[in-house]
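Loading example: each entry is read as three labelled lines plus one structure line.
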Amino acid sequence: MKLPESFYIGTNVVYQAKSLIGKYLFTSIDNAITGGYIVETEAYNGVIDKASHAYGNRLTPRTQTMFMQGGIAYVYLCYGIHEMFNVVTSVKGQPHAILIRAIQPTDGIEIMLFRRNMQTLKSNITQGPGSVAKALGISRAINAISLQSDTLWIEDRGLSFEDQDIAAVPRVGVDYAGEDALLPYRFYVKGNPYVSKPNK
DNA sequence: TCGTCGATCTACT
DNA sequence: GTAGATCGACGAG
């Protein structure tokens, strides 16, 4: 059921980001399983991508996770408040990552509501990368954990979308990246209510 | 050592 | 529509 190690070791991060659409992401944290299927991703293409933390082979305590072999999680803090969850891909030394920006929740919705401090299910529960991490209980404590573990993993349940139902557009919040900000490295399911900023 | 600012979200006006 | 939250990474000095 879990996506095999071989999927993550592939070197075409843009293709992998698109492939993750429709895959199921689960966490088992605090004795509760939560998750859903991925409806929005962004690819970060290693040392040549100005939008990536690892641009220009920048190796720091934070980014070293991205330089490890694919198939692990990269979790970091943004704006001092939000933790973001990425899937590290490719071979050791090549810092590719895929940001999970939104999922459609299917399991453990009660738990996710509690973590998000919400009473009723609304589309913003897992809409945007900070929200996804919070709803799933993901924090920097599980940075670099294996996606073959029983804490955090991705499954293929046979759900897939046609090319025409997946939009490929420029990434969000990376204006500082110059011409790389224009690359169509963001993928999402057209019309899905959990997608953040559907029209850009 | 210090100052700047970010792969964002929420609560307000 | 817009401001505030809140902290670690990074480059300048």
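The longest strand of chain A covers residues 32-45.
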